[in-house]
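hi! just following up on the protien thing from before. the input was this:
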Amino acid sequence: MSKIQLSKIQLSKIPSRLSRRTLGIAVPLLLGVASISLTPPALAQETQQMMRTITVTGQGTEAIATTLTQVNLGVEVQGRTAEEVQQEAARRSSAVVNFLRGRNVSKLQTTGINLSPRYDYNNGTQRIVGYTATNTVSFRLPTEQAGSLLDEAVQAGATRIDSVSFIADDEAIAAARQQAIRKATQDAQTQADAALAALGLSRQEVVSIQVNNAYAPPPPMPLYRQNVAMAAADSAPTPVVGGEQEIQATVTLQIRY
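and the predicted 3d structure came back as:
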């Protein structure tokens, strides 16, 4: 006979002198006890198994060839007065920008405009002896065109090349990111299998997934201003050779075992 049936028998033996209000309280209490006693042990075991998880983080890296060159260059002018220096810098900068627009470079933008005094220190006293104006821009272009364009930019009026870095195009980066995520996921699963196998356990379903992916282009390769004069004097184009860019991703898996 089940516990619920026993409870019913016990209720039938309650003296008739008890009020209906008393029975209304007693019946739910007795039934509550019966329902608690019926909690299956399998449910507690299943809850315990759900808590048995392993968390692993995998890493994936995909290398792709760089096809674009990011350039930062500009003009620097020195003179006696701020006005003449600023006007000359503006004139040369306009010539450089017009040249770059004619070459259809992408992402052309101004990155800096600066005018600062130059000082001479004599016997503990400083005095202004002139001014320096600097205007700089950045842009992108295909790497195979970078060498000749840098030389032509110098001829157009550029007097400084601050940095050159190499990157892949957006489509290649997106495809490489997906591949890096796949590699990171496989790496996480491999780690989990190795750890569980050492304990005589096996991997079951994945409980949660967290994807963190980012890429970092290589640091810019500086080209100093003395190289600008050499490039202008040399009839051969300045060699510019790209490299590879690494796309990295990490994936964290929580796996039940």
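Residues 170-198 form the longest helix (29 residues).
The two ends are 39 Å apart (CA to CA).
cheers
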